[in-house]
């Protein structure tokens, strides 16, 4: 199925100060779990579920522009969701974020 911009929407996930530096945060939106990261003041969002196994990336460690999976230590790029190191091969979905005042929204 081909999706278009009309299929996307912005959903509020919290206030700017809900997301602390070096403290990944999970947000559940219906059946969707999203991990939100703050690095050098900037926010990033990835699918929370590791593409390799049953692990939550919001339980991982941020190093530079990557998050390291807590189970087998694959590293995912916070900007693109690409798996930069194994054992994961497949990317995780990355999400666009925007702020409006102090409100933070994710595009789903
Ligand atoms: S479950 Fe994440 S690297 Fe294996």
Description:
- The chain has strands at residues 10-15, 25-29, 32-39, 42-47, 61-63, 66-68, 75-77, 83-85, 94-95, 97-100, 103-107.
- The protein is 0% helix and 44% strand.
- The strands form three sheets. It has a four-stranded antiparallel β-sheet with strand order 2-3-4-9, with no helix packed on it.
- The protein has a single domain (5-107), classed as Rieske [2Fe-2S] iron-sulphur domain (Rieske Iron-sulfur Protein, 3-layer Sandwich), CATH 2.102.10.
- It is globular and about 40 Å long.
- It has no helices and eleven strands.
- With 108 residues, the protein is mainly β.
- The model has no long low-confidence stretch (mean pLDDT 93).
- The protein binds FE2/S2 (inorganic) cluster.
- The site of FE2/S2 (inorganic) cluster has 10 residues, from loops.
Descriptive tags:
108 residues; Rieske Iron-sulfur Protein; single chain; 11 strands; 4-stranded antiparallel beta sheet; mainly beta; binds FE2/S2 (inorganic) cluster
Q: Which CATH top level class fits?
A: Mainly Beta
Q: Structural class of the helix and strand makeup?
A: mainly beta
* CATH topology-level name: Rieske Iron-sulfur Protein
Strand content: 35-45%
- Number of helical regions: 0
Mean pLDDT: 93
CATH homologous superfamily descriptor: Rieske [2Fe-2S] iron-sulphur domain
Question: Gist?
Answer:
This protein has strands at residues 10-15, 25-29, 32-39, 42-47, 61-63, 66-68, 75-77, 83-85, 94-95, 97-100, 103-107.
């Amino acid at each position: 199925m081909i999706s278009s911009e009309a299929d996307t929407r912005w959903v509020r996930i919290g206030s700017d100060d809900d997301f602390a530096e070096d403290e990944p945060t999970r947000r559940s939106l219906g059946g969707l779990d999203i991990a939100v990261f703050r690095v050098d003041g900037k926010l990033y969002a990835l699918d929370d579920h590791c593409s390799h196994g049953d692990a939550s990336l919001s339980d991982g460690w941020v190093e530079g522009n990557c998050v390291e999976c807590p189970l087998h230590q694959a590293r995912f790029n916070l900007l693109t969701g690409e798996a930069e190191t194994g054992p994961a091969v497949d990317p995780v979905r990355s999400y666009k974020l925007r702020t409006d005042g102090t409100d933070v929204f994710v595009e789903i």
